[in-house]
Amino acid sequence: MSRFEDLSFETRWLGRPREHWAELGSTNDRAMAWARAGAPHGAIVTADAQTAGRGRLGRAWASESGEDLYVSAIVRPDAGKPIGALGLAVGVGLREGLAAWLPATQLKWPNDLLAGGRKLAGILCEARWVGSSPEVVVGFGVNVGRALFPGPLADTATSLRRELAAPPDRGEVLARVLPALEAALAAFFAGGFAAIRARYEPHCALRGQAVFVDMSNGAGPKEQARALGLADDGALLVEPPGGGPPRRVESGDVWLAP
Ligand SMILES: O=C(O)CCCC[C@@H]1SC[C@@H]2NC(=O)N[C@@H]21
Question: Record's InterPro entries (predicted)?
């Protein structure tokens, strides 16, 4: 039994209700089903592999390795709490947890963590409303142990194993990341994104960079701009080509210009 499997039966889960699966379609789907059945705030679903792991904008998340982290946490914010920038807060927590090994990890708006310019981790938050209360599944994948990536990911993705001479195992990573995530979410729910913006900005991969922006959720043309930073509510601020007042990007995707 690996240390990761050990951990699913240990107190290093810090008392959280948890399920660990050898294989699932998507930990987000399982967590949402568990939430509907009444699982409490903080409950965690993990899997060694996913057969239908997914990312934002309908993309697939390669999840077959058995060596990486696939995690979904059930989060039950208080009624009326804004959750629009929750994914950014998750990024802050993940980055701070992973900084134990890779302090230079950067945040690429809205939901990626980059190491050496390559994708190390991704975040997918999904919510449904129960009356006025959101029920949220915070899903994240961290490339921990895999050395090889399929197809185009070979040039764009990385892992702790690829970045470090002595990579940690998945259990160690999870044990660091979960408390960091909880701390970031607590600050976010107390004060909104403005309360953690200073923990995001110094690690923003886009600030000052030329970017292509798609402001229509994957369907529209890409527009060139320069990223300025983040607003207090988490929107990305960009300067249009030729100058002019900053424009807000609230959804969609952003690419660093080559
Ligand atoms: O980069 C992205 O677009 C987000 C990727 C999120 C992947 C994680 S892995 C655990 C959870 N289950 C899923 O199906 N997706 C998320």
Answer: aa-tRNA-synth_II/BPL/LPL (IPR045864), Biotin_CoA_COase_ligase (IPR004408), BPL_LPL_catalytic (IPR004143)
Q: 125: domain CATH number?
A: 3.30.930.10
| DSSP letter assigned to residue 133 | E
For residues 120 and 158, state if they share a domain.
yes
Sign of the alpha-carbon torsion through 16, 72, 112, 91? negative
Angle, alpha carbons 144-236-114 (nearest 5°): 15
Q: What is the end-to-end Cα distance of the chain in Å, rounded?
A: 44
Of ligand 1's listed atoms, the one at least distance from the Cα of 121 is 1
Cα 142 to middle of ligand 1, angstroms: 9
The structural domain count of the chain equals: 2
- Please identify, by atom number, the ligand 1 atom nearest to the C-alpha of residue 54: 14
Nearest in space to 77 (alpha carbons), one of 13, 14, 129: 129
| Test site for ligand 1: of 124, 138, 146, most ligand atoms within 8 A of the Cβ | 124
Q: Which residue's structure tokens are 């997914």? A: 54
Q: What angle do CA 211, 126, 37 make, to 5 degrees?
A: 170
| CA 212–ligand 1 middle distance (angstroms) | 23
pLDDT digits (tens, 9 = 90+) for 33-88: 999 999 999 999 999 999 999 999 889 998 887 899 999 999 999 888 889 999 99
Task: Decide: 92 and 86 in contact? Cβ < 8 Å.
Answer: no
